[in-house]
Amino acid sequence: MSYNKLFSKTLLGLGLTFAISLPLLAAPIQTADSAEGEILTNEAGMSLYVFEKDQAGVSNCNDQCADNWPPLMATAKDKAEGDYGIIKRADGVLQWSYKEQPLYLWKDDKAAGDVFGDGKFDVWHLAKP
């Protein structure tokens, strides 16, 4: 989901108006319906997952784990809001979280709506609102 705010300005008192669009850099997370019910996805519609071995606000998926389960990255300009937060991983990278649970993608999900990571190794689950 992309958030934009429009600003209008009168040009030289001539009554001419123009608009510029500024991104608000909010959480790049949306919801979608799936065979497993309503789930969280990234902006491209790719399913998001949580890891049972994580702790609130702490990612325990590093190295090879993070290669297989890429973290949903955030930037220093992104703003946490409501249930959506930003955590700092052990490698210093910022990652989005939902209700303090770090969010991940699954490398084998290839198209929007794929949910192949759900239940993987009995510790990975779809992120649900």
UniProtKB/TrEMBL annotation:
InterPro entries on file: Lipoprotein_repeat, UCP029720
Pfam family, one: Lipoprotein_15
GO biological process, one term: alkane catabolic process
Keywords: Signal
Cleavable signal peptide: 1-26
Classification via PANTHER family: BLL4220 PROTEIN (PTHR39335)
Protein's name in the database: Lipoprotein
